[in-house]
Amino acid sequence: MITVIACTMRSSCIDNVFENYDRQLWQDKQMIIVLNNDKMDIELYRQRASQYPENEVRVYQLPQKYMLGKCLNYAINLAEDGLIAKFDDDDYYGPKFLSETARAIKQGWASIVGKHTAYLYFKSKQALMVFRRGREWSYRRSVKGGTLVFKKSVWKRVPFPEFKKNGTDSGWLGRCVRRGFRVYSVSKRHYVCIRRKNWSSHTQKKSTLRYMSQCRLVRRTKNYRPYVN
Known about the structure:
CATH class: Alpha Beta
CATH architecture: Alpha-Beta Complex
Number of helices: 7
InterPro entries: Glyco_trans_2-like, Nucleotide-diphossugar_trans
Organism: Paenibacillus sacheonensis
Protein name: Glycosyltransferase
Distance between the termini: 23 Å
Largest sheet: 8 strands, mixed
Oligomer: single chain
Domain Glycosyltransferase 2-like: 4-114
Number of domains: 1
Keywords: Transferase
């Protein structure tokens, strides 16, 4: 069983959260959504969740004052034993995302996998780019937070830090590595980190031009999906 954990503060991302989950070809899955904004309407999400078999998709709301780590720990505690996949509410997850990451864990490569090399799409520039190219299929000390997939048993030994405003994922990964867990970077495919024109609205407050300067252009396009799956 893979449990997708989606913590969200943006009502505008509701369709993206459900579509990313629905798109996955991996069948043995569930999803827990945590609303982390006091103004969000939980009934809208529960109505969508009711369209799935009982308990396949569960929705909870936590106070806005809670940091990401506390929301993640709350959700993971409710998940079945097995694998945990952390989905960001505003990124794109291709149909084979869960399949690729789950197989890497099941084949024994590591207890934590993700993508160190990743596609980024800059909406304002219609630019699909590669970040940290050439670091696929290798052991790394870090992967992008939105691509984390790991055994729940890892989390039982190393929960997420609950009071960090920034760097929740990197802080957790660092603690895991220090505890002896290996982190494996799979391919860059099946995932795209989406960067909006208003870059200050992102958790990672890096300007578009600065971020693009650290990437390599794949192509200018309005539709990136055919090139990433």
